[in-house]
Design goal:
Keywords (chains A, B): Cytoplasm, Glycolysis, NAD, NADP, Oxidoreductase
Number of strands of chain A: 16
EC number (chains A, B): 1.2.1.59
Number of helices of chain A: 12
CATH class of the largest domain in chain A: Alpha Beta
Order of helices and strands of chain A: EHEHEHEHEHEEEHEEHEEHEHEEEHHH
Shape of chain A: globular
Helix content of chain A: 25-40%
CATH architecture of the largest domain in chain A: 3-Layer(aba) Sandwich
Strand order of the largest sheet of chain A: 4-3-2-1-5-6-8-7
Oligomer: homodimer
Largest interface: A-B, 42 and 43 residues
Family (chains A, B): Belongs to the glyceraldehyde-3-phosphate dehydrogenase family.
Number of domains of chain A: 2
Organism (chains A, B): Halorubrum vacuolatum
Pathway (chains A, B): Carbohydrate degradation; glycolysis; pyruvate from D-glyceraldehyde 3-phosphate: step 1/5
CATH superfamily of the largest domain in chain A: NAD(P)-binding Rossmann-like Domain
Largest sheet of chain A: 8 strands, parallel
């Protein structure tokens, strides 16, 4: 059993903790919080051992009546790998602590690529993390782009990618963020940093990205153009993408017009927190014009990196094949909405660990 | 003097009426409304003669205490040209009425191109409307795309245009429209109808467009990619676009990050209704990567077609040159924000007619 800790039980950390908890080959040792807020309370209610991320804040948890098992240092002494889910930039500052405790560490995409030996995406760059001590799981947007570009590049060759990323202003719980009733070029300079980040996963892909931020909280939306090296027909591309197990092709019959109905669907089929781990691609939008492929896809910024973190743990700590790791992750979490949509049990069963 | 009427004193019609009213060679005979609502009241307060668009609704205006000068038929008998600013589809139904009264007619971009003899954009396709009886001024988005593509095509050659149109969900006064907190592929099929509409103005340009709708009301935002036939440097492209008098290059020093500050600027300099007749292009966003030009531009959906309607009237009713007509329109309205931004009088003077 791989002993795993999660440093930072926030938006990503809570989901990674849940995912680790249902893996047959992993044991969730505990999670950390800096403050005894509602998330700390929820972690305890879920039965997770809670550690104070900052040692001298232990009394605050006691005063709030929330039981803690120790501090981050105690957690680090008890795990093989720590998944850092702290806010951007904090992960890099934590790196020396992890090294001092001689634990492997996974960082999130908010950190610079230089924080780790390798950037990771299970579909496109699993082996780069094999046996590594410090690995960075790329951001939600980079994960979403890599998953769809990789099979296109392997099958047709990619000459150029141009993507406009219409980004949610903040997560649903981030009440302090904007914009309200506006669309912001963000960053206003073009190309944005997202393209170079994709190159940490797919170094040879020529990609220019543009970022906008809009008054929505639920998901990112990508307007994607891929100029291919050949001219496949639209039906072939749809079939190629449909075969990918972390891409969900939204069928026209589903009558899903945006993130609201997508997440309603996820909740209706029993997904924890209404999470969508898959890229959600409107099948109707997939179209090839000459060598230009276009599509719209939605990315759940809180969720799509969660299965990637699980696979990164296996790449770092085992010799399991990419295919076996991905299959285990998908099965235990219930990744794969197309099969879920057609399943009679509504997809609830995979949320129960089968070990 | 060209005698002009406006059929439909709504979002576009009220602005066209104001613009006609300050032209030295035009006389605003009157405007129509179907109902005696706040806009009808405002038309009278501005001193415009008001006509009932539907004859049998005359009593409703009398009951509301709003004076009317007659019906649409009376207005049509008194004008040389009628500017139809009715909701999409109504313009086409009105065409026979205009023909019966032997008046020239301008339609808006919500109508199919087949409604008129020619589609019009002052910068790119002025002469097509010369002497015509029925002309369609293309939509706000098509106007915005045509204005920026035309000089690029003339100067560098355009190999392909790919544009993602991030559209406002509704105008500020359209309280019944959405989305709230969502981003909708709209239409979900790609390419969207906007590209073919640009081809009514620039028939030889290869263009694919993608449409999204977001929870914002103030302006459309275009994420534009133009693959050029050569590799100009970024500075040259910026200068080329800066020279265009209906393009406003937002300087970095202005610290304008979105539509909110853009419209605040327009109000601060005294623009009627805070209108922005120009494409608003973030100068920092203009960048050439190889032969790929990128930029972000905002389009004020309520306003950018207004000067185009004025120029269309001159193309249909006079032999004035495109340059002279555009210059007169720009001077009388005060089009041109770059000069306005640097003018000591804050740009208020042009709103007064100088005839």
């Amino acid at each position: 059993m791989i002993r795993v800790g999660v440093n930072g039980y926030g938006t990503i950390g809570k989901r990674v903790a849940d995912a680790v908890d249902v893996q047959p080959d992993m044991e969730l040792i505990g999670v950390t919080k800096t403050r005894p807020n509602f998330e700390a309370d929820a972690a305890r209610r879920r039965g997770y051992d809670l550690y104070a991320a900052i040692g001298d804040r232990l009394p605050a948890f006691e005063e709030a009546g929330i039981e803690v098992a120790g501090t981050l240092a105690d957690l680090l002494d008890a795990v093989d790998v720590i998944v850092d889910c702290c806010p951007s930039g904090v992960g890099e500052r934590n790196r020396e602590i992890y090294r001092a405790h001689d634990v492997k560490a996974i960082y999130q995409g908010g950190e610079d690529a230089t924080v780790a030996e390798a950037s990771f995406n299970a579909r496109a760059r699993f082996e780069a993390a094999r046996g590594a001590d410090h690995v960075r799981v790329v951001s939600c947007n980079t994960t979403g782009l890599s998953r769809v570009i990789a099979p296109l590049d392997e099958t047709y060759g990619v000459e150029k990618v141009r993507a406009t990323l219409v980004r949610r202003g903040g997560d649903p719980a981030e009440t302090g963020r904007g914009p309200i009733n506006d669309v912001l070029p963000d960053p206003v300079t073009v190309p944005s940093h997202h393209g170079p980040d994709v190159n940490t996963i797919l170094p040879d892909v020529d990609i220019d990205t543009l970022g906008l931020t809009v008054p929505a909280t639920q998901m990112h939306t990508h307007s994607l153009n891929v100029t291919l090296s050949c001219e496949p027909d639209t039906a072939s591309v749809r079939e190629l993408l449909r075969e990918e197990d972390r891409l969900f092709l939204i069928p026209e019959t589903a009558a899903i017009d945006g993130a609201g109905k997508l997440k309603e669907f996820a909740r209706d089929v029993g997904r924890s927190r209404g999470d969508l781990w898959e890229n959600c691609i409107w099948e109707e939008s997939i179209n090839v014009v000459g060598r230009d492929l276009y599509l719209f896809q939605n990315i759940h910024q809180e969720a799509d990196v969660v299965p990637e973190n699980i696979d990164a743990i296996r790449a770092m700590c085992t010799d399991e094949s990419p295919a076996d790791s991905i299959a285990t992750t998908n099965r235990t979490l219930g990744v794969g909405l197309e099969s879920m949509a057609s399943r009679s049990d509504g997809g609830r069963e995979p949320l129960v660990a089968d070990d």
